[in-house]
Design brief:
four-stranded antiparallel sheet, Jelly Rolls, 271 residues, 16% helix, 23% strand, alpha+beta, eight-stranded antiparallel sheet
Length: 271
């Protein structure tokens, strides 16, 4: 696949709305390989480890969520610097044209949601964390984190689609009807929210500071996505996960540089 580059229209819409839909971001073959790999994962309880990946569902309603999923290897490793989006995330959150230019994946999550599941609304510009903030000045983007959600199943009405409130990454006020994340309030009918429908292989890119969540899945079957959260090279993983030395050692330098942009600096071992 030829690398995709953000256009002037992409920049305009990303600034205006806070998100972009990347159609056919990955090939059908890669989608199939990822789904086959998912089918081999054994049942896991909350908190249980599978190699260097861990089941850590955000809430009881968000479904099966396997954190540090790049450790599954194989086709998952291709997502690290996939040409369908890597130039986009570098442009928006990779400290472009600075002395610390580069990327770091601070979260990577496999999410499988079944009927009844949803993800409560969260984020937004009002009192938002700097980690996910949207910023543009002096001709460059300086976003704290940009998310890629890659669809591994078709996601339409009733499938538990990602929901966003366009423009809320710049909001100076709280949404008066947004409810409470800790309480698990749903955003299905939240004023201003829209569902992002995707076909298998499509991806949605959004700044983490936009108000977002997941609509209620009412259809049978599974909603399968992989979530990659990119940030600047000096970042750290949110929950303290570490990429294993085995994974780092087998990656080509370009991919390793995204998972370990700054190598540990230690004194030499004493004899």
């Amino acid at each position: 696949m030829e690398p995709r580059l953000p256009t002037a229209l992409d920049d305009f819409l990303f600034d205006l709305r806070g998100y972009l839909i990347l159609k056919n971001a990955v090939s059908p073959e890669l989608v199939e390989q990822l789904n086959r790999a998912i089918d081999t994962i054994p049942p896991l309880e909350y908190g249980e480890w599978y190699g260097n990946a861990q089941r850590r569902d955000y809430t009881k309603d968000t479904g099966f969520e396997l954190h540090n999923c790049l450790e599954l290897g194989g086709p998952f490793e291709e997502l690290i610097d996939h040409p369908g989006w890597i130039h986009y995330v570098h442009h928006y959150c990779g400290e472009e044209k600075s002395y610390v230019e580069g990327l770091f994946i601070d979260e990577c999550i496999l999410s499988v949601r079944r009927s009844g599941g949803h993800h409560p609304v969260h984020s937004g510009g009002y009192q938002g964390a700097l980690r996910g903030a949207y910023h543009y000045a002096n001709g460059v983007f300086r976003c704290g984190q940009c998310n890629i959600i890659l669809a591994l199943s078709n996601i339409g009405p009733g499938d538990g689609a990602t929901m966003v409130i366009p423009g809320s990454h710049k909001s100076n006020f709280p949404h008066p009807l947004a409810g409470d994340y800790a309480r698990g309030d749903r955003m299905d009918t939240l004023e201003g929210a829209v569902e992002v429908h995707l076909n298998k292989g499509d991806a949605v890119l959004f700044v983490d500071g936009i108000m977002h969540g997941g609509s209620s899945r009412t259809n049978p079957g599974e909603r399968r996505v992989v979530i990659l959260r990119y940030g600047p090279s000096w970042g750290a993983t949110r929950f303290g996960y570490e990429y294993s030395q085995a994974l780092l050692d087998r990656l080509p330098p370009s991919r390793r540089a995204i998972l370990q942009p700054i190598k540990p600096l230690r004194p030499p071992m004493k004899p």
